[in-house]
Design brief:
Order of helices and strands: HEHHHHHEEEHEHH
Radius of gyration: 21 Å
Structural class: mainly alpha
Shape: globular
Strand order of the largest sheet: 1-2-5
Oligomer: single chain
């Protein structure tokens, strides 16, 4: 969220009447806490006048990154076989050890037997998100544009549990309701992809490749883009 605010401030497009702000319920609240630990991102949050003038320096920075990328690729080519053999060997070792320890199975059993489930987030992340959202809305409106909030659901909403960062979580509707309370309170238009697309499917998991956790599949992204495009008319 904070990085989206930073991008808007640095690369505001010309002649834009509407801005989509995407919220992915899988990790956006987790990431906003991590973003605030970044000294640059925190400056965008704390100082309304802070800017690195990236648009003016884009050509210079592109050339620097181009040279860094070229050097990086040369190093990769020189060490490709060594890295490849090491990574394959290392990955096989990790998988083998994980199988021996039955790590995921043990975690799952502990999760199901535990009386106190791990909740996704606390009010700190939610309050921080609201503060950032208010800043984004104010900035967009000062540019004579409209902010549109797009809610993107995660896989675990349609499954029985959530597995994230080596832990099992209890899926909780509290965060969904809390976010919507914040959006409505601040008079921001909402496009709820959960309601408009996923709940209309016989099996919402069809939106995910092979019905497995991860990003949406191609058809689902196309359907989402159609919904967004229709909202502009």
């Amino acid at each position: 969220m904070v990085h989206q605010f930073a991008l808007l401030k640095e690369f505001w497009p010309k002649n834009v009447s509407k801005i989509f702000l995407f919220y992915y319920e899988g990790n956006d609240l987790v990431e906003i806490k991590d973003e605030m630990k970044n000294p640059i991102f925190s400056k965008y949050f704390k100082d309304n006048n802070f800017s690195q003038e990236l648009m003016e320096n884009i050509k210079k920075s592109d050339e620097v990154y181009r040279q860094v990328f070229k050097l990086h690729m040369e190093n990769l080519e020189n060490n490709f076989e060594f890295q490849r053999n090491y990574e394959i060997s290392n990955n096989y070792s990790k998988v083998f050890i994980s199988i021996l320890k039955l790590t995921n199975s043990r975690n799952m059993i502990n999760f199901l037997l535990s009386k106190k489930k791990i909740s996704d987030f606390n009010d700190y992340e939610i309050n921080l998100y609201e503060e950032t959202l208010i800043k984004v809305k104010k900035f967009v409106e000062e540019k004579n544009s409209q902010l549109i909030f797009v809610y993107l659901p995660e896989y675990s909403r349609y499954n029985t549990f959530k597995y994230y960062k080596d832990k099992f979580y209890n899926y909780n509707q509290y965060n969904y309701k809390k976010i919507f309370d914040i959006i409505n309170k601040n008079n921001i238009k909402i496009i709820d992809i959960h309601q408009l697309l996923f709940l209309k499917k016989k099996d919402p998991l069809e939106c995910f490749p092979r019905k497995k956790p991860g990003h949406y599949n191609e058809k689902c992204y196309f359907d989402i883009s159609t919904i967004l495009n229709n909202s502009l008319n």
